Known about the structure:
This protein has a single domain (8-62), classed as Factor Xa Inhibitor (Irregular), CATH 4.10.410. Helices cover 34% and strands 15% of the residues. The protein contains three helices and three strands, in the order αββαβα.
Amino acid sequence: MPKMKTHKATKKRFRLTATGKAKHRGAGTSHLAVRMSSKRRRNLRGTRVLAPPQTRQIQDCLRHNSY
């Protein structure tokens, strides 16, 4: 059988922590931030941890990744 491939779009958007949680960048941070309040922009900085039900899906997509 051929090797299973890593889902490249998932690899670009998510990273797994040492305990297996999925980190990602918050949505709405790319552009058009002028119309947001300063508080909202400040809270969008950094990374978020994905909810556990979706973490399993991300782990399946990244399972064949060499990290």
